[in-house]
Amino acid sequence: MAAITAADVNKLRTMTGAGMMDCKKALTEADGDFEAARDILRKAGQKIADKRAENETSEGFVAVNVSEDGTNGKLVALACETESVAKVANFRELVQRILDAAVRTNAATKEELLSVKEDDGLTIQEHITDLTGKIGEKLDLTYVTLTAEKVASYIHSDSKKGVLVGLKNVGSADAAAVGRDVAMQIVAMKPVAVDKDGVDSATVEREIEIGKEQARAEGKPEAMLEKIAQGKLNKFYKEQTLLNQEFVKDGSMTIAQLLDSKSKGMTVTDFKRVAIGA
């Protein structure tokens, strides 16, 4: 059995960021083999992740990057269980590491991003597992990316909500400024789609049926139910689709009208909204 010194424990702690007692225990179990000890710590993190898999992650931190030419945006959100963990340095450093990896590799999906290998030989997934072992909480990653003529971004003041919004026909308008206003609208009003063409058929059918049932409950004639339901559907489009919503900063215009006033024909092509715990 190898003698485990304080220097050995400190070395492993520097390598992994794990607690002193955890490092000593891992080194003892690994008979002084540092790589084996790192594996032991990682497996401990996976056990914690498995045990806490059903726990709610309502806290966390959102980070965003928009490319220098403004045509691509990437947003990562790392969720945890408690507010105190969301504020610690190594948690936020991991969020930045994940975002940097996404930008560096231009990862298209969460799965692709998780498999990115860093210079230390660990994947992003392994770094998340390692931190899980250190803090003892479930961590959950969300990743979205968006490409457009111009991409704008916004992170809410609580750092738990973020938006990427794609614009086209920007012209000479300040894309970052108008995009930020639109992104703030998306955070606040939670639209389900850009416009009515983006609403999936199942949602449309459900809204029509709800409209019919409401009209029927109010005693309206069966022959009028379809027309009444279509009217309610149009109200749904106005309230729930981005371009048709009233602008929260100026209720005299819709988002579509706001964009057109900044540059003729400017519109939103797509958006991504991410919210931790909401």
TrEMBL record:
CDD domains: UBA_EF-Ts. Signal peptide: none annotated. The keyword Cytoplasm applies. It is found in: Cytoplasm. Its main location: cytoplasm. It comes from the Bacteria. Keywords: Cytoplasm, Elongation factor, Protein biosynthesis. Residues 74-277 form the Translation elongation factor EFTs/EF1B dimerisation domain. InterPro entries: EF-Ts_dimer_sf, Transl_elong_EFTs/EF1B, Transl_elong_EFTs/EF1B_dimer, Transl_elong_Ts_CS, UBA-like_sf. Associates with the EF-Tu.GDP complex and induces the exchange of GDP to GTP. It remains bound to the aminoacyl-tRNA.EF-Tu.GTP complex up to the GTP hydrolysis stage on the ribosome. Belongs to the EF-Ts family. This is Elongation factor Ts. It comes from Hymenobacter mellowenesis. The gene is tsf.
